[in-house]
Amino acid sequence: MSPMRAKQLIETLQLQPHPEGGWFREMFRSSAQVMPADGRPARDALTTIYFLLEAHQHSRWHRVQSDEVWIHLEGAPLALWISDAALRTAPAHVRLGPVDVHGMRPQHTVAAGQWQAARPIVSPSGDDYTLVSCTVGPGFDFNDFSFMKPDGDEAALLRHHWPDLAALI
Description:
2 helices, Jelly Rolls, mainly beta, five-stranded antiparallel beta sheet, globular
């Protein structure tokens, strides 16, 4: 597809720059509240966003203290990297996109507290962006969100054991 499709989506969906990279817009925030079992104060039950990454963008390593469901909507497949909160195991990557025989699926859930990062899987002849929807429950709150600190222990572990993924910090 032409590079114009990403720009068209950004304008049509009224997306804004996201702190972790890419573009987003919140589409739904539940009016119902829930009490998380982990001691956090009440949160909206559910939130959803559109999230778009252009070919040169990525979602920086971060974690959310609620479950997050990623759903591929259109464009290039997405490499979604996931690791446990202490980076004890190698980050695994899930490919989100149209269902295929190689294991690609359109949806994946990242469990609360896990590290996650993402980038489009762009081929020279394919799309130059990825559009997904992300649903968080209990609903997203910036108090429950943290980036991997570039000078922190997790970043040092990532650089040492998986240097190719350090570019996503």
